Amino acid sequence: xxxxxxxxxxxxxxxxxxxxxxxxxxxxxxxxxxxxxxxxxxxxxxxxxxxxxxxxxxxxxxxxxxxxxxxxxxxxxxxxxxxxxxxxxxxxxxxxxxxxxxxxxxxxxxxxxxxxxxxxxxxxxxxxxxxxxxxxxxxxxxxxxxxxxxxxxxxxxxxxxxxxxxxxxxxxxxxxxxxxxxxxxxxxxxxxxxxxxxxx
Length: 200
Prior knowledge:
Elements: H1 3-6, H2 10-19, H3 26-33, H4 37-49, E1 53-57, E2 65-69, E3 73-80, E4 83-90, H5 92-97, H6 101-151, H7 156-164, H8 170-180, H9 185-194
Antiparallel strand pairs: 1-2, 3-4
Helix pairs in contact: 3-4
């Protein structure tokens, strides 16, 4: 299983989060995650395959087994700006104690996940810097626009119509303006013609 496929399911990540607190039965996991027992069993099987989860016997008349994480691990899954951000902590000591191939493979998988997390955070930081730069440019444009409007003795209604002409839903905005300012649409059309604005 690749790092991305491990985190491709939000249910699987939440399942890991629940098991990181304590062992749980299939019924518990199904109830807390709001999915069927069959779906939980499928995710458990995938996590067992990579050595992350194991089955334990339960001394109970009604429940025979539960599932627990083999070693301590904590994963937080957060989606921001179309990026799946991963925060993770795990016991490297516990992983190094296992010498079998499965344990080494899992440890390698977790290291890859950390790399994905770091790359996602870097990408998010760059996106935020770009967003801030664009917002500053927009503020400059709006400032120039206000200066132009103020210097041309434009009425408040004319200003509203001019600014509405920049909106993608231009026609809908004009209808709203007509109702809100209680003016007929002909007056709005006069403003549009006066300033050679796009016709709705």
